[in-house]
Design goal:
six-stranded mixed β-sheet, 499 residues, alpha/beta, seven-stranded mixed β-sheet, tRNA processing, elongated, MeTrfase_TRM5/TYW2, GMP Synthetase, Chain A, domain 3, 3 domains, binds S-adenosylmethionine, transferase, single chain
């Protein structure tokens, strides 16, 4: 029904020309007769007998037709309230008349020449001949509306006349891509972006000022064109809140921001307006989790809703996960249950510094002295709060007291940071060194996680906490007179400076 309306042949046929190609004149006499009969029956349809394949409509008309294929009706420019009907337009396209029994074979053989547009049927009824169908071709693939030699060869084998006719095809809102729709609506010459991040059923945009008057329309177009998206939000401030979530405006669709996502085969539920979730971190999450072995211990200082913690627990690691945001903490608990790892994860809702000074210190003090020379268990500390985490590294200075564990047992830190520096790896390393109070030369690695914005990178620096940073050794000369103790401590700071 819809197809007929869209391709309504006789009603929409303006001037339909059959074109004969250079190779077609002798090969298909039977079809020639048929074409001649057509020309008498359909008003406005006439046969062009010129053999020159470049003899078609004037170039400019062809070009316009081709452009129109990708541009909705020009009257939509400046529209702020979506009126789908206004996008309709009629374009001239080539069609090939084919017996209905072999339509599928022709479609397969000419698949690169057939017109592909969203929601568009590739075959139309032929109202003049119930036994035939009209295969809609892409004008871009048929310069001059005449088939190339290879297509003609294919058709010859199928005993199909290679003549193409011109048809008026009605394109509707459904047949345009979202970018084409937005390009037609937004002011000419200004950037049109239909890019978004997807979090479950939510599309998340970051619109520029010039796009704001069109924001509701943009939201609706995204819903229309992306199955599964039922809510579109726009970020209304930069992500600088303590909890790394941002304020947002619902532009279109339902206002429900509780959603479900899947990352690396693990399901998470979350309220997108209250917690941090970034689908661009999935590779990084799995990169870190791959470093872990079953029975390793993971301390996740800024855990969010658990994208490091839960896969690590699934891998049978012992996990301590913390987040300051009570909403994140609650969703973390929820997701632990959802993924049946609540017995493997101890969750905390405190400041990262308190978490390191409390539960992390306690666990390390208990477990590190028990490690053998070649320990089976590794301890990893993940710190994904790129705007601030490096500043937390000073917590490791003398976090533990006593004899250092074996070098192999020293905990491994994976700390994230942003850098706008020319040499971001060097920048991150220097900032980590300043915070730790020691050089990491030759004992750290940096990994580029992603480009966050032009000239802004997110990196991860990984290193084992040096024993002299992590451990405060009991002072051997405790109990000596104060003057001697002072001398000893001066010597040791000079030593540190020299080393
Ligand atoms: C960038 S998100 C990372 C979340 C998660 N680890 C991930 O990879 O998706 C940082 C998280 O740190 C939490 N956070 C911010 N400041 C904190 C602090 N001082 N102590 C603990 N958590 C904090 C935020 O609530 C947020 O969930």
């Amino acid at each position: 029904m819809r197809t007929l309306w869209r391709f309504g042949y006789s009603a929409r046929l303006l001037k339909t020309n059959h074109f004969r190609t250079a190779a077609s004149n002798t090969s298909f006499p039977a079809v020639w007769i048929l074409s001649a009969q057509y020309s008498g029956r359909i008003p406005g349809l006439f046969l062009v007998v010129k053999k020159n394949r470049f003899f078609t409509m004037p170039e400019t008309v062809e070009d316009k037709a081709n452009l129109e294929l990708y541009s909705p009706h020009p009257e939509v420019r400046g529209m702020t309230l979506l009126d789908r009907e206004a996008f309709k337009r009629t374009v001239v396209v080539p069609v090939l008349k084919v017996k209905k029994e072999i339509v599928n074979t022709v479609l397969k053989s000419l698949k690169h020449t057939v017109l592909q547009r969203p929601g568009l049927k590739r075959v139309a009824e032929d109202p003049e001949d119930g036994d035939s169908r009209l295969v809609i071709l892409d004008p871009h693939k048929i310069p001059g509306f005449s088939l190339g030699e290879s297509e003609q060869e294919i058709l010859k084998e199928l005993n199909v006349c290679p003549e193409v006719s011109k048809y008026n095809l009605e394109l509707t809102y459904e047949n345009f891509k979202s970018e084409e729709i937005l390009r037609a609506v937004l002011p000419e010459g200004q950037e049109v972006t239909s890019g978004f991040s997807r979090v479950g059923h939510i599309a998340h945009l970051n619109l520029r000022d010039h796009q704001l008057p069109y924001r509701h329309l943009i939201g609706q177009v995204i819903i229309d064109k992306n199955p599964g998206i039922t809510c579109v939000v726009n970020k209304t401030n930069i992500i600088d809140s303590t909890y790394r979530n941002f304020q947002m405006e619902v532009l279109a669709g339902e206002g429900n921001l509780i959603t479900k996502v899947k990352e690396n085969n693990i399901a998470y539920e979350l309220d997108f307006s209250k917690v941090y979730w970034n689908p661009r971190l999935s590779t990084e999450h799995s990169r870190i989790v791959e470093l872990l072995k079953p029975s390793d211990v993971l301390f996740d200082v800024f855990a969010g809703i658990g994208p490091f913690a839960i896969p690590a627990a699934k891998k049978k690691c012992h996990v301590f996960a913390n987040d300051l945001n009570p909403e994140s903490y609650n969703w973390l608990l929820h997701n632990c249950k959802l993924n049946k790892v609540d017995n493997k994860i101890k969750a905390f809702n405190m400041d990262g510094r308190d978490f390191l000074l409390g539960p992390v210190r306690e666990e390390l003090s208990k477990e590190l002295p028990l490690l053998k020379e070649e320990p089976k268990t590794s301890f990893h500390i993940v710190m994904n709060l790129p705007a601030l985490a490096i500043e937390f590294l000073d917590v490791f200075r003398h976090l533990l007291v006593g004899e250092p564990c074996s070098t192999a047992g020293l905990p491994m830190v994976h700390c994230y940071g942003f850098s706008k520096h020319d040499d971001p790896a060097k920048d991150i390393q220097e900032r980590a060194e300043a915070s730790l109070g020691t050089s990491l030369d030759g004992r750290c690695s940096t990994h580029l996680v992603r480009n966050v914005a032009p000239n802004k990178e997110m990196l991860c620096i990984s290193f084992q906490i040096p024993a002299d940073v992590l451990y405060k050794r009991p002072c051997p000369d405790e109990g000596k007179p104060a003057s001697k103790r002072l001398r000893a401590s001066k010597d040791s700071s000079e030593e540190k400076l020299l080393s």
